[in-house]
Amino acid sequence: MALTFYYASGSPFAWRVWLALEHKGIPYELKIMSFDAGDLQKPEYLALNPRHRVPVIVDDGFALYESAAIVEYLEDRWPREPRLFSTDLRQRALQRRMVREADAYFAEAMTHLAQALLFTPKERWSEDQISGACAEIQKELSLWEGAITGDYLAGALSAADFTLYPQVALVVRMAGRKPGLAPADLIGPRMTAWQRRMEALPITQKTWPPHWK
Fold first, then answer.
1. CA distances for 98 relative to 38, 56, 93, 112, 130, angstroms
2. Most-buried pick from 43, 84, 156, 195 (CB within 10 A)?
3. 10 Å Cβ neighbour count for 77?
4. Is the pTM of this model over 0.85?
5. Rounded mean pLDDT of 64-76?
C-alpha cells in the first residue's frame, strides 16, 4: 500500500517532504489540502495532526507529522539510495546540524517576513517591520553564504538542501511582492547559484507549489 502524503500548496515544510519523497522514489498518494477551505480544521484531519498543520504522512496506518521527523522516518524506512543523509558519520552530522539551523533560525526570519508582507494588508505595511525582517534574513543568509563550498549545502544533495530551499524560495517569492526589494539584495552569489541549481532539479519542477505556477 502506497504511503499517503497530506500537502498544502505554499507550505515550505510540506514541500520539504515532497522533495524527499521524489528524491528517494518512494510511491505515495498525494492529498492536497486547502488552507482556505479549512481542510486542516476538519475532524478527520485533526485525528492525524491535532496541531492542524501540514505535512502529515500515513504509512500502513501509522500517522506522522512534523516535517523533520517525517524526513528522518523516510530515510530509516527506505534506507536505499539515493539517500537523504550521508552514510559518513561526520557528513551526516553536518547535514543534521544544517536542518536544525534552517528550522530554528532561518525559518524564524522567514516567518517574520511573511507576517510583514503576506499576512498584513498592503495598505498597512510597516517599512520598519519589513526592513527588520529583511535584515534578519540577510544575516542568516550571510552565514549560509560562508558555509557552502560545493554544489550543495553539505556534500551530496541531501535533506539539508530540501529543508532550506523551500524556505529560501518562499522568501524570494515574498520579496517580489515589495517594489524595490530584489532577491539580490538578500542573497549572496554562492547561495544564488545554489538556489538556481536547486530550482533546476526535475524534482523541484515536479513539486513546484501549484498556486505559484
1. 33, 22, 9, 20, 26
2. 84
3. 14
4. yes
5. 98
